[in-house]
Amino acid sequence: MTSAHDTSVVLRYFAWLREKTGLNEERITLPPGIATVGDLLRWQTTRGHPFDLAFAKPDAIRVALDHAHAKHATSISNAREIAFFPPVTGG
Amino acid sequence: MTSAHDTSVVLRYFAWLREKTGLNEERITLPPGIATVGDLLRWQTTRGHPFDLAFAKPDAIRVALDHAHAKHATSISNAREIAFFPPVTGG
Amino acid sequence: MAVRVSTSDFDISAEMARLTASDAGIGGVALFVGKVRDHAHGEALSELVLEHYPGMTEAELERIEAEAQRRFKLSASLVVHRVGTLKPGDNIVLVIACASHRQNAFAAAEFLMDYLKTRAPFWKKEVLENGQARWVDARESDDMAAAAWESEQG
Amino acid sequence: MAVRVSTSDFDISAEMARLTASDAGIGGVALFVGKVRDHAHGEALSELVLEHYPGMTEAELERIEAEAQRRFKLSASLVVHRVGTLKPGDNIVLVIACASHRQNAFAAAEFLMDYLKTRAPFWKKEVLENGQARWVDARESDDMAAAAWESEQG
After folding, report:
1. B71 CB contacts (<8 Å, ≥6 apart)?
2. Do C12 and D14 lie within an 8 Å CB cutoff?
3. How many whole angstroms separate alpha carbon D93 and alpha carbon D117?
4. C1-45, pLDDT tens digit by residue?
5. Which chains are adjacent to chain B, needing at least 3 Cβ pairs under 8 Å?
6. D1, D31, D26: which is closest to D13 by C-alpha?
């Protein structure tokens, strides 16, 4: 159960980010000081192997907050689900 | 049978030109002096009722020579089948 | 590459399957279906009667299709146009353009429709529910759409 | 208006019949089908694996469809996208746009494809006949096609 004061978020990984991190998803409480999507991408590189390699090129990574595309400058504020993936290639 | 020296042509009529002339087609030997599609349209107006009314507005009429669109300035030269119709409205 | 004039309806799935079966290099297929609307100039439509010029119709459609093939490097294409008496909701025309990528497929399908509308010898007569019947006037916008292609790539 | 993500194939004729059944004011239907090509960068392709982001995919497709509806006054529309393991010749995506006239139908189908390609969270992995597998790179031309709509009508 998730209480009203739970500050954890679900991080999800797709395509080669899923393969490189070895994770489909994880539930995590982010350290303080992570305000934007860009902050979050930089933080990922500090988590050691395999995150350092998976997130080595943040410009090649897209992020969605609660199922909506977000720019690197976007505030993550109250997002409950944050997804990391390469540029999309459907159609 | 059509001999090698037969100079008759088949004239065909479509849509409201078919209705106004009352003809699907006719085989006819054109009088001398009709060189172009424009000449032919003017000649049609001289044939009396119902051709005078059907061909009263030649700019609203399209002509095909042997199954190919022709402009009013095009020579009718050796055409064997000449068709008269309004601007097309298929699709 | 094929054109067909028909009094009967077409099966889009079957036509597309036949067209794409032989070429697995096809990545994009654009299709267009024209249908009979239930109204004309605000009046309820009862029937749409389609007349054509047998012989010239096929010749003209083949010329249009060959030009689309040349411009857009199509892998395959199809034009089916119905004639006779149609009812609201009935299909009138089917155009299919198959290419490696979607841009050429879309452009070819639009080109085929624009040219078909201004060059293929079909004529529509609207029969209204009030009993009136009238030949459809050609639309100036269709002439302009076709003319716009003239200034593009030779 | 509908979007669907599916592991199974679609029947174009049936989807179109369902979409147009309720509205006899529809005069033009533009469709696009994307298919798996049998080669990639000159190599023979064995399989195409399509991954997506359940939940976001549907949300994003609905946003794209609503925008197309708003811009092009569509009578009806449909987006179906397949996921899972596909083979050369298999259908990947179906887009249908129904409008009164052909210009809006065509424009909407192209708009839906351009946006779907750059915004809907799908990813393709190519498995080659030589055993190699690689994630497909996004195409800059797709980004430009989508960006071109941004400068058009609000």
Report:
1. B37
2. no
3. 11
4. 799 999 999 999 999 999 999 898 999 999 999 999 999 989 999
5. C
6. D31
The per-residue pLDDT for range A24-54, each reduced to its tens digit, is 999 999 999 999 999 999 999 999 999 999 9
Q: Which two tokens stand for residue D107?
A: 């424009």
List, in sequence order, every residue forming a beta bridge with C82; answer none if it has no partner.
C6
ipTM of the complex in this document: 0.93
List chain B residues with CB under 8 Å of C119: 69, 88
Closest-CA residue of chain A to D140: A87
Residue where the block lists tokens 């009263």: B56
Give the position of tokens 């010329």.
C63
Q: Where are the alpha helices (DSSP H) in D24-126?
A: 56-72, 102-119
Cα C72 from chain centroid (whole Å): 17
Are chains A and B touching, using the cut-off of 8 Å on CB pairs and a minimum of 3 such pairs?
no
| Residue D100 at interface with chain C, using a CB cutoff of 8 Å | yes
Alpha-carbon gap, residue D17 to A26, rounded angstroms: 44
- The beta-carbon neighbor of C136 closest among B14, B83, B89 is B89
Q: Enter the pTM of the model.
A: 0.94
What is the C-alpha to C-alpha distance for residues D140 and C30, in angstroms, rounded to an integer?
Answer: 22
Q: Pairing between strand D43-52 and D28-35? A: unpaired
* Predicted confidence (pLDDT) per residue in D103-120, tens digit: 999 999 999 999 999 999
C-alpha to C-alpha distances, C19 to B69, C50, C51, D83, nearest whole angstrom: 29, 26, 27, 24
Matching residue, tokens 């452009």: C107
- Residue count of chain D, please give it: 154
Asked if the Cβ–Cβ distance from C37 to D100 is below 8 Å, we say: yes
Chain C closest CA to D93's CA: distance in Å? 10
Full strand arrangement of the beta sheet holding B68-70: B25-28, B9-13, B81-85, B62-65, B68-70
CB-based contact, B72 to chain C, within 8 Å? no
CB contact under 8 Å between A69 and D136, yes or no, is: no
Element (H, E) at C12: helix C12-20
Q: Is C4 on the interface with B (CB under 8 A)?
A: no
| Exposed/middle/buried for residue B21 (C-beta within 10 Å: 0-12, 13-18, 19+) | buried
Taking each helix axis as running N to C, give the angle between helix D102-119 and helix D140-150, from 0 to 180 degrees, rounded to the nearest 10. Answer: 130
Instruction: Spell out which residues of chain C touch residue B59, defining contact as CB-CB under 8 Å.
Output: none
Q: Which of C81, C93, C123 sits opposite B15 (nearest CB)?
A: C123
Q: What is the full DSSP assignment across A26-82?
A: EEEEPPTT--BHHHHHHHHTTS-TTHHHHTS-GGG-EEEETTEEE-TTSB-TT-SEE
Q: Which helix (H) or strand (E) holds C147?
A: helix C140-150
Say if residues D20 and D26 touch (Cβ distance below 8 Å): yes
D56 inside 8 A of chain A by CB: yes
